[in-house]
Design the sequence.
């Protein structure tokens, strides 16, 4: 594709102007994936309007940080709606089927990190990946993550979720040779600063292969891990 | 592989005890990639000792943040040493040959970001990827990055390097559908805080698919991008 | 005007002493614009007292961050009151009519930035500018803002409102050749720190012509943009 | 101009590809002003290459943060070079002549703020504005700025430069009814944090009409003030 | 007094051990002033117990940050209780009578700073000073504070209370030649950070004679100002 | 014990997989102490499940930050439950009996620090130490802590709890010759930043022998102090 | 004095316009004290020019943060110059003689705090106070400051200088009943953050009567302490 | 010992007044350990003066952060001086002999952490402990620390030194059941912020038994670890 063609493509990129939003019906063509709507900070009616515009071609739409009342409104107006309250993940329309070798591992340091981990796991599943969960495997009891090295070894991408000191991704990064997407969580108190300490810790990971997304951004991590997983060649 | 086997493997993981370092000769087996030594904060003699221990099996060893005198000492004592002063990247031993479809794009916002970008590019090359560089394509002249959309569309992973407000990865992330590894640089002054502003900006990217590594960590970004690139299936 | 005269003017500058406030009846003469009262942190009675003192000469008074009960009290006691709940903007008295060439563009990155944008837009309107709104045009779908370049090109001042990574003003600043007043919003989560990340990002904009006001300070941006707009010469 | 035309214009926007930089020869058409090169973080040879590409049509090129050796190299290779060491401002080519009513006031709180103020003043002059300087007029001796109210009253835009507590723009903002562009400087010690305190203080100015640029960013302030000045209608 | 005597005095310093508190009955002798109890973070019963222990010798006890229910309980159990809800200041017992020349000025930048200012004013009054209040005299309308220079000139200590950019103490410090105790308030939004910006600004005041107490610490400022006032020699 | 044995021990380290948690039944063997469950961020049912798994061998289980409803559920389902609402400490099963020479001193600066101090004290008691409490002995009335030097001299470890400026541990550290574990509390306002100031102050203590735990982490301090106390030799 | 008179006084306030500075010859009348010039950030020639303008009436001029070469230039051109290299304090002209009861105590926590303490002490002396120095009396050996309680008891104002955890002012504040001006110093390492920790600690002092000036601002503290000292009534 | 006796002891606590320092000859009696002098920020002559005063009774004096020239001056004037340049530790006089069961383990994450670790190790040795060093055992190659579990199991206190993400203490804390004193180092770059990230990470350790000292404070950690070690009962 030439530059001219690329620009023409951009120029004619369709979006539905809703006044309060420009629903980007173009993204499925451009990025080849399930459409995503960020549910927080929008009224249920606004979210419904956007989802409707995006769901017109029959594909899957993922609503993240979806409030209960938004999920209810979607459910009343649209078919095929699934909603998980712990993670706030809502899907509208049919989910893709994972390929045979697909495998994303989602690991957490503690029990309190599970809601964020579920956001990652369900996002990856909505995008077409198979997900295995390893929860409460923090580094203060190192034998817990060591007992899962065989599962980790088969993953094509890993999401590592941790609050407090955020040490888990560094240990996991040393055990696998695939990208580790680290998610700091706002779990902790005092000098955890709502996840900043974990975020900084992960930025400074001594393990190569670790990159970081925003605090509590399970969606972002699941999105990237699934992207890597789905594009990986069979071993 | 069972848990028992995994643990046995870990237990017998060989490293060469050098007193000041435990050279991890095991990593090539465990992680299947070129060995890496972080050159800063080590005396030239310490780096030489570690590189020697790692290079024994004839593979490639990558020394990052390599001071000039360390590169000189390596060059005097070992064969096949290449050193780039701008990025501080030094390789010892034969580099892997990239596969036909390999493609990592390294883009920068400005001219001053080039040293970090070169660290990323040369790391990815040392690990076996083909790299295309797009430099000085910051968002204040948006037509510059738009003119490269065709090249970006063929990449299997993108490294986006920017200082100041760090907006480039968000724009790039919206143009491609592969993972974008964002590298904040310490370029800027005043409220750029040595890269913190760019780092925070990138953490909050509105584009899905963007993850972040530490400030000026070109190596980390090149490592992850190459990992993704080499494992990608041909389209 | 000589220094002596300037000082005499200052010395005799009238204000109405209300005990809890010194209502600055002088400002309309001194600054030639609609009077402004900051409604937050004042009791409805205090705001009413100040507005009354300022509205005596029949001009327009603008109350920002106006709580519902303050608006109600003003409405009960004074004529010609308009109140917008989304932005908290309340005007008392007749609004000025915009000049034919007047044009302020208010753009937002997302849907959640609209309340702050409305504060800017309605402030500029209350001061006598014509306003065009371009909402949900963030940089992750760059074609959305590109499709509005013709409108932007006619603006005499632009207000760019964004949370999260705050990249929009840099892109807009590169598309226009008039001042861009950037408003960071507290929209986002995690490392957006209630708008600090967007603020810092905007401070470091690589585009010339961008200056910044406080987080969520739609009023300040609208005020400046209108000031520039109304004083601009016809092209 | 239609969207199609706007995009075509962007698509064909010319820049000279120099490898390390994309010199934006398009900006003069697009933004109608003197071209600007940021001199810091570039080698003298890189800056020369870019200036050459930009100066080809005979217009004025402004190099900011220009190191002495870069200025020397430009002087040796190009005609009509002026260099001010205090502010690091270098101009290549003929400066525009200011219009009769043009007036930008540049005020500083102290003597140490002068280098940044000169960057602002010389930038505005290079862009075609007339500039009046009012230096060392900080608020601890309030009579100093009060004695200049007559000059301030004639300005079409004001640049207010201050370090330490950064209070000057708030006082100036209350004395004039034109936009005040505030520049925090890194002057001070201890809890001035290299200008952060002044920056935050200015962000929170109680005077309407004040917007802020980055610490020590005299260029940015001069650029915006001149933009406003040159577009202002005669009173 | 010799060191030995000083230590003996300390050794025998009486306090009433209440288990949850050691009520310091010694302070009145040691520091010669009204006793003070910090009411926040204590149950009403705890505060009552402490006040009782301190009030035994018939002097005045000042309770700061006093919750309504604590004031009620004190009122039910003790005589001579005065309570101001705005500032949370409660006094138990007879207040000292100010000397003829006593004068503390308490000035605020805005209307929202009044609760903190009242804490300062009432503290100084409870300790025996005469207080004059100058409210809503912020620097954006500089003529407001200038109109009070005659009153300020008679003060023996000044308390300057301001939120947002905290510029008032610098201006006041230049107008008087007595100590100015600056109190940052948590008034403001966005980058005011709950008073941190004002605090930093005040720390960096360009006026000599300004010192700073904690955010919203009206008590501390009133205490110091009164201490200075009461010890001043008649002019 | 050889490395092989150590690894075998780790490999076979038992934990009960509960899905949401991996209850570490191994820790009592490995670390020889009462088991600990962090109660916050877990549902009452999750906590009950974990406590049940840990309490199976009849030892003592300590639940920290235990919500009232969790304590109630534990009480309904398990025997020997003690719950302190102030500190949120809940113990299940029989507590160890302290040795004759055991002594941990827990000191606080103020009354508001007591809840954190009680967390420390009750943790140390649950682990088998004898505890003496010295409350409200802050440094502004230095005679209060000086009057307790004889008690402090007998302690085998000290926990020093303080908010605000956090000066107490430095003074205590100079009075004793045993380790002082400092606990910053979130007590205070304004620039105390929820305990950060106290934390930083304690990190910089000029007294040797002072180490620090997280803000409000009474549990951590009590745990360490008791560990030191129980292992100390009789004098 | 009426408002009119006050404003006339301000209006006619004389200053010598030097271009780079407005030397405030008015301040001695307005504030009744020795003139002060901040020597850092000015060229020696600029400082000389300002000192000359201020010294014309034969009074004392104090130059703070005075570089060696500035002191030399002053010495060559003016009579009666005294310069202390440790503190950077330079006085030009005759110093005032202290009154009999004058007493300012300057205390430091450690030996490294002495340069800042000397700045305070010499400033107070230049302004006409008698100063007693108590150095190296930090709280980790509490008996050192306790042994000086008799001297402290006679002081009319205290300057307390400390780096690291900054605990000294709180202890001193509890021992005296006069204002304590706390000066944080940049002494320390790691989490002392160049004095920020000490500053924050002092802001949160649990002792009433403590106010704070900027990091390393010995001048400011000496100025305030002397102001209080000189205005105090004899006991 | 009664309160009276404690105070008398404090009162008569001897120190040698050197003007610039109060050498605390009392500490050996009070705290029973080797005397310590902080060498940084003192002139060599000041350090010599203090060491002489402290060494008079023939005990051991430890000088930390000792500059080369101070060590040289001590060596010239005093006998039995040992100096280690890497850690800056200098001892004067005979070192105590460790008891048979004494064992402090000092572990580091990387090679660059060794200088701080040596400060800890040599401090503990100077105070009378036996020390085993385990260097370069960071968590990215977890088998390295796991291979040392047998040595760790015999330690009576552990010092864990790490920069970057500071994860090592959490892993070590889970492997041992003795106190772990964590030392953040300023090793790293970018978002490691000179050790702040490691410090925060360690404050939030998920392992019980971990407390933290200041960045690079090897001395503090060695001091505490040795204190615990020497007071431990034989197992």
Sequence:
């Amino acid at each position: 594709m030439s530059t001219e063609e690329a620009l023409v493509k951009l120029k004619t990129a369709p979006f539905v102007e809703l006044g309060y939003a420009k629903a980007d019906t173009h993204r499925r063509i451009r990025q080849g994936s399930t459409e995503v709507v960020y549910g927080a900070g929008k009224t249920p009616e606004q979210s419904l309007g956007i989802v409707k515009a995006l769901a017109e071609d029959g594909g899957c739409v993922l609503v993240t940080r979806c409030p209960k009342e938004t999920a209810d409104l979607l459910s009343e107006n649209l078919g095929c709606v699934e909603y998980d309250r712990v993670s706030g993940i809502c899907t509208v329309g049919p989910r893709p089927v994972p390929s045979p070798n697909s495998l994303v591992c989602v690991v957490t340091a503690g029990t309190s990190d599970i809601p964020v981990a579920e956001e990652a796991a369900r996002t990856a599943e909505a995008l077409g990946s198979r997900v295995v969960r390893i929860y409460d495997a923090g580094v203060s009891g190192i034998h817990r993550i060591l007992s899962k090295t065989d599962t980790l070894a088969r993953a094509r991408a890993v999401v590592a979720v941790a609050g407090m000191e955020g040490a888990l991704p560094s240990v996991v990064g040393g055990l696998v040779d695939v990208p580790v997407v680290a998610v700091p969580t706002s779990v902790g108190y005092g000098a955890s600063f709502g996840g900043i300490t974990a975020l900084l810790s992960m930025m400074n990971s001594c393990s190569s292969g670790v990159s970081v997304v925003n605090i509590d951004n399970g969606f972002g991590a699941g999105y990237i891990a699934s992207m890597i997983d789905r594009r990986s060649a069979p071993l």
